[in-house]
């Protein structure tokens, strides 16, 4: 069965994704229709960041995946050399 | 048509619609707030897909369960196979 930690981590991931989705939807979809003098604009970064942040996050993710794959492959190569 | 082709067609259709609307190729005069929503739309779709993926993984982590019946069935099948193989002269 899923233990307590699993449930906490899983529900935390669900909550995180819901928070990100709600905030991003409000930022990108709803904000242009709200008057630009409204107080709510204080709680959001300028609009260019709505693209820049996901782009940077995606690049970081790809970078880390690449580093991980390189590390694992190099390690495997060394291991097979040792056994031969 | 394969699933891949379907997805590619849908993406191409959506992408060309988006490009046409953003570049103003159709000659439509959209209100400025609509245009503000339109240009980050691909990023928005990507982020939504990412959120959905993260949520699915989280939900499955929170609710996964052991398949006890299947484990019992598998154990009994292993026993059966061992007995059968021992009868035919295989030693473990």
Kindly describe this structure.
The complex is a heterodimer of chains A (84) and B (92). Chain A is mainly alpha-helical. Chain A is 74% helix and 0% strand. Chain A has helices at residues 4-30, 49-83. The radius of gyration of chain A is 21 Å and the shape is elongated. Chain B is mainly alpha-helical and 92 residues long. Chain B has a domain at 3-65. Chain B has helices spanning 3-23, 32-38, 41-63, 68-87. At the A-B interface, helix 1 and helix 2 of A face helix 2 and helix 3 of B. Chain B: This is Dolichol-phosphate mannosyltransferase subunit 3. Chain B: Pathway: Protein modification; protein glycosylation.
Average pLDDT rating of chain A:
88
Overall outline of chain B: elongated
User: Total number of helical segments of chain A?
Assistant: 2
Q: What's the alpha carbon Rg of chain A, rounded to whole Å?
A: 21 Å
Distance between the termini of chain B: 51 Å
What's the pLDDT, averaged over the residues of chain B? Answer: 89
Strand content of chain B: under 5%
Q: Would you report the number of β strands of chain B?
A: 0
Choose one word for the global shape of chain A: elongated
User: How are helices and strands ordered from N to C of chain B?
Assistant: HHHH
**Helix fraction of chain A?**
over 70%
Structural class of chain A: mainly alpha
Uncertain regions of chain B: pLDDT < 50 for 5+ in a row?
Answer: none
Low-pLDDT runs of chain A: none
Main sheet of chain B, how many strands, which sense, barrel? Answer: none
How many domains of chain A? The number is 2
- How many H/I helices of chain B? 4
H and E order of chain A:
HH
Number of strands of chain A: 0
Could you tell me how far the N terminus lies from the C terminus of chain A, measured between alpha carbons in angstroms?
A: 42 Å
Largest interface: A-B, 28 and 25 residues
